[in-house]
Amino acid sequence: MIRARGVQKSFGSAVVLDGIDLDVNVGEVVSILGSSGSGKSTLIRCMNGLERLDGGLITIDDFDVSNPKDLAEARKRSATVFQLFNLYPHMTAVENVTLAPIQVLRIPRAQAESEARALLDSVGLGARADAYPAQLSGGQRQRVGICRALAMKPRYLLLDEITSALDPEMTAEVLNILAQLARTGTTMVFVTHEIEFARTISSRIVFLDKGRLVVDLPTDRFFAGDGGMANARIAQFLSKMRKE
Amino acid sequence: MRYTSFTSYDLILLAQGLGVSVALFLVTTLIGFLIGTIWAVMRFYRVPLLTPLITFLAELLKNSPVLVQLFLVFFGLPALLKINVTPVEAAVITLSGNTAAFIYVIAVAAIESIGRDQIESARVFGLSRWQILRHVVAPQAMAFAIGPLTGLLVNQLQVTSLISVIGVVDLTKIGNILNLRTLKPFIVWTVVGGLYYIAAKLIALGGARLERRLRAHTAWKGL
């Protein structure tokens, strides 16, 4: 499981995460909601070791991400998909997907490639496997990004606002794949603004506000009038997001 | 035939001179490229103490005339260290150092042009710093650097002509010899200049081809 305890993170004098406690069990889809600047992305970046914690603890299957010796193992167990895709522009789709499996997991190239092609095929990109990122649409790029993460066979998928840079049609392409993954029991931490979609796939919803975890509820309780919606801040957030 | 006339043997002399110039250019470029790149990699790894030292050394080499450096190596070092430095050795040392300094600057700029997002997306998948450098940073940095690098190399070819003053028999020195014998400076220096031009043009063409290849698939199509 992913376990966060009392996570603290500041950038200069700005406190971004202020004592976050969160558990993500295997098989769960946990969506993290909150307005911009609430610390959602920073929390993900703490989980994958891109930001150093100022306090508290994050472990992935008991591997402490703050411990350099554990971090490598923690990173093998989780894989991140980024908001702006972060594909390697000088590599084809299939090369993007195979780089880490070949270099980090030491999977033979031929095997890594056939697995990568199968993955790309499963997200509808079989014919685009040898295209460069510049030749792909945003939605296609993000699907490559998802394949790149899945190729590491992670136990946990960390999704950092992965549809925020996409138009509605491309967003749908990407969300369909997540829905498939959720059905197959992939564990996901899903930072998003897609509230309705989060509602359909999540087992739990967590709401962050100003670096604090406001609620952590099962999805149906979160949207219930006497559950999450009873919190004024959440009700305000949801009504505002739905208007947009 | 008067001794001032051009002979077919002069063509061989010119070819020899060109060969010496090009050979020196190639050797010093290779050494300079290796040293400059190693310096840049050390900086990428943020090796303490060494990084500011390298930056200081590169600054010194960049900001003083190559001719002065050449005199320092050819006349100054032997006087100080009581050693013997041949003109070719002095030329190789000076030009390699000079090229290294400029390649270091280009390589550092190229590495820094690679977005943090690229390095982060490799880090989260567990790639080591070396693997990131080799597979993610270097290919993109090379595509960035190839333009400035070609410009630098064209310039460094011209700079080799300075070594004629310490007695290396390169193309310029041959031009000097032919000029003194024939007393036809316009023809001699036009031919010598033309030969440098052709060599420089070949470097530029090679660089442009390599650039097209390296950038064919990258997102940037230039500004």
Automatic annotation (TrEMBL), chain A:
Specify whether Transport is a keyword of the entry: yes
List the InterPro entries hit by this protein, alphabetically.
AAA+_ATPase (IPR003593), ABC_ATPase_HisP-typ (IPR030679), ABC_transporter-like_ATP-bd (IPR003439), ABC_transporter-like_CS (IPR017871), MetN_ABC_transporter-like (IPR050086), P-loop_NTPase (IPR027417)
Q: What is this protein called?
A: Amino acid ABC transporter ATP-binding protein
Instruction: List, alphabetically, the Pfam families matched.
Output: ABC_tran (PF00005)
Q: What positions does the domain ABC transporter occupy? A: 2-235
Q: Which SMART domains does the annotation name? A: AAA
One GO MF term: ATP binding
Keyword Metal-binding (UniProt): no
Localisation per UniProt entry: Cell membrane
Q: Membrane topology per the record?
A: Peripheral membrane protein
One annotated Gene Ontology cellular component of this protein? plasma membrane
Keywords for this entry?
Amino-acid transport, ATP-binding, Cell membrane, Membrane, Nucleotide-binding, Transport
The similarity comment for this entry is: Belongs to the ABC transporter superfamily.
- SUPFAM superfamilies linked to this entry: P-loop containing nucleoside triphosphate hydrolases (SSF52540)
From TrEMBL, chain B:
The membrane-spanning stretches of this chain are 20-45, 66-85, 91-111, 132-154, 186-205
Q: Which PANTHER family has this protein been placed in?
A: BLR6398 PROTEIN (PTHR30614:SF34), MEMBRANE COMPONENT OF AMINO ACID ABC TRANSPORTER (PTHR30614)
Q: Which domain of life is it from?
A: Bacteria
- Which SUPFAM superfamilies would you find in this protein's record? MetI-like
Q: Which UniProt keywords apply?
A: Cell membrane, Membrane, Transmembrane, Transmembrane helix, Transport
Claim: GTP-binding is one of the keywords in the record: no
Q: How does it sit in the membrane?
A: Multi-pass membrane protein
Q: Please report the name of this protein according to its UniProt entry.
A: Amino acid ABC transporter permease
The entry's family comment says: Belongs to the binding-protein-dependent transport system permease family. HisMQ subfamily.
- Ranges for domain ABC transmembrane type-1: 18-207
CDD domains this protein is in?
A: TM_PBP2 (cd06261)
Q: Which organism is it from?
A: Phyllobacterium pellucidum
